[in-house]
Amino acid sequence: MSEVRPALTGVNLFVTDMQATVEFYRRLGLTIDDSHDWGAHHVQVVMPNGLELEFDSIELTRSYDAGWQGPDATKGVMVFSVATREAVDELYEELTAAGYVGHQEPFDAFWGARYGVVEDPDGNNVGLMSPSDDAFKGAPPSL
After folding, report:
1. Which residues of 12-42 are buried (b: 16+ CB within 10 A; e: fewer)?
2. Nearest-angstrom CA–CA distance, 124 and 132
3. Residues 34, 44: contact at Cβ < 8 Å?
4. 117 near 82, Cβ under 8 Å?
5. Cα four-point dihedral sign 127, 131, 135, 140
6. Fewest beta carbons less than 10 Å away: which of 21, 27, 116, 129?
7. Is 1 a domain residue?
8. Per-residue pLDDT at 52
9. For residue 121, how far is the Cα from the chain centroid?
10. Structural domain count, the chain
11. What percent of the chain has pLDDT over 70?
């Protein structure tokens, strides 16, 4: 494995009601801009410490996570950034070879990153994501 350690950069929650979720977190005190085109399906909040809290609709989640089993199976994923696209594949391979469950094999996501998901020992989803690269960006799914 690379000497560069993964860094926790975000938490992504899968939500059944985006409007209710945004309202709750606004009441909690977060400043949320959901006015963009994808506001009904994806909202990103950069916290004061740089951590990104993201909300994805069930429809969007199903479009990019073939292993997702529904809102009762899991509520989200902790996202760890790694330095390269290759590092996503290497870390996924290393973790699954060690016996951890692979939830979503690495793939080139429409937002331009290489992305894969493994489960921690308690079944929590842990996302592995490379930096986004414009060369790999594609059209978002039609929802």
Report:
1. bbbbeebeebbeebeeeeeebebeeeebebb
2. 24
3. no
4. no
5. positive
6. 27
7. no
8. 93
9. 19
10. 1
11. 95
Residue 2 pLDDT: 62
Total residue length of the chain = 143
Residue 95's SS3 state is helix
In a domain, 26, yes or no: yes
Q: List the domain range (segments joined by +) for residue 132.
A: 7-136
Q: Is 61 part of a structural domain of the chain?
A: yes
Tokens at 4, concatenated: 């560069």
Q: Is 141 part of any domain?
A: no
Q: What gap in Å lies between CA 47 and CA 51, rounded to an integer? A: 5
Q: Is the pTM of this model over 0.85?
A: no
Give the count of alpha carbons within 13 A of 123, CB side only.
7
Structure tokens at 63: 């479009």
Q: Specify the pLDDT at position 5.
A: 86
Please report how many Cα atoms fall inside a 13 Å half-sphere around the Cα of residue 134, on the Cβ side: 0
Q: From first to last of the 143 residues of the chain, give the pLDDT tens digit.
A: 667 789 999 998 888 889 999 988 998 888 999 898 888 899 999 988 899 999 999 899 889 888 877 766 556 788 999 999 999 999 999 999 999 999 999 999 999 999 999 998 778 788 999 999 999 999 999 98
In three-state secondary structure terms, 26 is helix
